Amino acid sequence: MAIVATNLKRGQCISYKGETGKVLNLEHRTPGKGNALIMATIRSFQTGKTKDIRFSSSEKVEIVPSETQKVEFSYADQTGYHFMDTTTYDTITFQEDFVEDCKDMLIDGLPVDIQYVDNKPVGIDLPSNIELEVTESAPGVKGDTATAATKEATLETGLIIQVPLFIGPGDKIKISSEDKKYVGRA
User: Fold this and answer.
1) What is the CATH number of domain 129-185?
2) Sign of dihedral through CA atoms 170, 174, 176, 177?
3) Tell me, which fold does domain 2-63 have in CATH?
4) Which of 34, 38, 164, 174 has the fewest beta carbons under 10 Å from its own?
5) pLDDT one-digit tens code per residue, 6-51
6) pTM of the predicted protein model
7) Do residues 120 and 114 lie in contact, with contact meaning Cβ atoms separated by under 8 Å?
């Protein structure tokens, strides 16, 4: 099924010039002269690399049919990352290279969607916000609040992000799964 590039959405699987991939980001641009264009960031299923593709607004793009399966992250060990199918209770194991982009956001019991194209897993979709506990952070400096000051904090998964000064160890915070940035307290 082909659609006009202006109707592309984040998360869709497409085929372009013999390569299939997932749309990670879209940006509609209207230059001062000429036609509008769409800048799409695509992750290739074949190579795993991301690249930017420029589509004209009237260009046709082939949509690749995909299916999703709801699973829950169970645990990780030396054999891989283990997920449980919430309907059949079967365990699905993926190697580290498959979960590379999101491994520092996976916590026990986190519901995720596995995306399949032609019965092959091609990606993991996380919830938009994830609650994680702060395990380590420096104390905030008193009087350093004139601006939106931040400090480094280490989360329970090992991820290091910038948080406001008032966040301390033991606090539960929400982070955006899209850009791995602090959203607010949980």
Assistant:
1) 2.40.50.140
2) positive
3) SH3 type barrels. (2.30.30)
4) 34
5) 888 888 899 888 888 888 889 888 877 777 888 998 888 877 788 8
6) 0.77
7) no
